[in-house]
Amino acid sequence: MKKAKEKVPADKLVEITSLENTVVRGDVKSQQIAAYQQLYTIWDGLNELPIAAHYAAESAKLENSGKSLTFAANLFLEHLSHTQDAGVRVWQANTALELLDKAIALEPNNDTLKIKKGALLVSNTGEPMKGIGILREVAERNPDFLDAQLTLANFSITSGQYDKAIERMESVLERHPQEPKALFLLAVAYQSKGDNAKAVELLRQCRKLIKDPSLAAEIDGYIKSIQ
User: Fold this and answer.
1) Within its chain, how far is the Cα of 219 from the centroid?
2) How confident is the model at residue 93 (pLDDT cuts 50, 70, 90)?
3) Could you tell me if 162 and 199 are in contact, meaning their C-beta atoms sit under 8 angstroms apart?
4) How high is the pLDDT of residue 28?
């Protein structure tokens, strides 16, 4: 944060320092929450996203609502994919996990939060099997929860378990034959196995269901690349 402050305009630095002092000496929780939220807004406006996320997290921990904790966790999850520094990535992953755990404690039936936690454990911590266990528990309890099924299929593909991904996506398509995301992942799994003809067939089915022009163009490009 020290390096980031060196680049901050003088007027903003005065405002930041004042708010930091408000947090330190603030006896009323609502004042601290308001100060943290203002700090989040300032750092976000300065495009210092990890610092902004830190203050959103501090505000959320004090507010202790599912909505605020989820918002802050999502900030860290979004930044993770853009962070090159290994130490920063560990901090972001651990903070996101802490926030998700707090949110799940408040909303124990929120499967979306559990999917986020499971995916985070698989991709960014040393506990991938724990994450897979969470994802499977949600998927088995609620077979129609698409995010759980897609996330598990995606991890199967990235780990080279293409047949597992194919089986899972075919099961989804039996119930939801017009689901473009399932068709796309099924195509990726077949293409990864070397069956380009089957992949192209599935991609063309997916393409017919896509309304977003940019996504449609990406699929067209994918088809051309494997034909």
Assistant:
1) 23
2) very high
3) no
4) 82
The stretches of the chain forming alpha helices (DSSP H) are 2-5, 10-25, 29-45, 49-63, 66-80, 86-106, 111-124, 128-141, 146-158, 162-175, 180-192, 196-209, 213-226
Give me the domains of the chain, ranges plus CATH numbers: 143-227 (1.25.40.10)
Contacts of 93 (CB under 8 A, 6+ apart): 76, 80, 120, 124, 125
Q: Residue type for 179, please?
A: E
* Region class of 26: left (phi > 0), else alpha (psi between -120 and 50), else beta: beta
Provide the token pair at 170: 């075919």
Q: What residue has token string 């980031």?
A: 4
Q: What is the pLDDT of residue 1?
A: 66
Distance of CA 153 to the CA centre of its chain: 16
CA distance 51 to 46: 10
Q: Which long-range contacts (CB under 8 A, 24 or more apart) does 12-17 make?
A: 12/42, 12/46, 15/42, 16/42, 16/43
